[in-house]
Request: fold
Amino acid sequence: MTMFHFFNCAILTFGPHAVYYSATPLSEYDTLGTSVKAAVVYLGTALVKLVCLATFLQVSENDGFDPYQLHKGTFESTDWFYRCCWTLFALTQLTHRNISQNHKFQAVGLGWAFADSVLHRLAPLWVGARGLEFTWDYILQGLEANANLVLSISLAALASLIWLRKNKPKTLIPIIYACAGIVATMPSITSYLRRGLGWYFPKVVGFELFTSLVMAFISWQLFSACQRPSA
Reply:
């Protein structure tokens, strides 16, 4: 029963990435190499971030004011800059063979989301989901991974419009930047909801799922609008 629960949670966490790759034209254009490179770049930048956190942040042993939490919040609030820089590098510097812009940002976003799931959810899933007691936490983590997949592809699509699409309508530029800012700061937003407002994990996951669907719809509309030939 414990292994059955583990496999169910693992399929829920990592299965949608494989389904998205096989069900879209990404598999037809052999973009797996691009996704793997994007995942490697993500893991490298995540390692640099962890080294910075371990180097510059010090844990306070006092029971009162904890400057560690203050500085940690500062690092989390600048997470949008780290995500945008990574996306810019992945979209412009990685070799993408002869694939279109439509498939390029999807491959990058897919690799990013898969690497994030492996980095943050594989170990807790392996250790916790095989426990003797059933818990909803790992099912919620799988749902959170699905929301992150949608948000990652949405951010990659918006980033491709910002940096790679030169002839986009001027009226849509502020909307594109605003949506990219919202998607890029989602880790900081969810962190504030958990620690600042005291939201429980199921409520946060519900918020992430709803936000990911809304931002995916908006990103799709913006990308479609920028694909239309200008009058």
Summary: The two ends are 61 Å apart (CA to CA). Confidence is low (pLDDT under 50) at residues 62-74.
